[in-house]
Amino acid sequence: MNQDRRDRLRDAAVAVLAESGGRGLTHRAVDAAADVPTGTAKNYFPTRDALLRAVAERCLEQYRALAASLAGDGPGPADADGLAAMLAGLLRDVAGPGRPRVLAYLELQTEGTRRPWLAALLDPIAAADFAAHANLLRAAGLPAGAERARALTLALHGAVPHLLTGAPATLAAAGLDDLDRFARGLLAAVRPEEDR
């Protein structure tokens, strides 16, 4: 199989799922979005479940590439300011160029409520964020206990739907109208008082 065409189809499937939701994700829609002959997506991903799996895998690849580029070489930012900048960058990506990927991922989570195999595929992806954030806290020289990593991860995950919706009053109320300030405040909130 042609890997370039496969990636093009997977990217098109991410875009279709983000734009049209679960009901709109069809082989024909993916073919149209990828500008390939009808039937091409079905040749690469014969079933709808195979198409959903391809989207999940592509979303994970894109997320890992973004996180690696923001972290730079090594385990991650070496201090709280660097980590805050990285987190703000991740959130900017959610509201900007990464929006289709994140919308597609949220659609996959919804599909996972009806497809246990998909929920099982997505589970390690989401669960990995908790360990990754603990490692980032540690690399930045911040306390990295399980409770702090959970608080950081859940706060970031909770911010995502608000960023995707983009409602100005909600963004302001949540402090998401200034992502740098939000990220610094979030890190301050997960640090014990004596470490500030």
What does this structure look like?
- It is a single chain.
- With 196 residues, this protein is mainly alpha-helical.
- It is built from 10 helices and no strands.
The low-confidence parts are: none
> Termini distance?
55 Å
Mean pLDDT: 90
Strand content: under 5%
Rg over CA atoms, rounded to whole Å, is 18 Å
Q: Kindly name the structural category.
A: mainly alpha
Q: Helix amount, in percent?
A: over 70%
Based on the model shown, name its key terms.
196 residues, mainly alpha
Question: What would you say about this model in short?
Answer:
The chain has 196 residues and is an all-alpha fold. 77% of the residues lie in helices and 0% in strands.
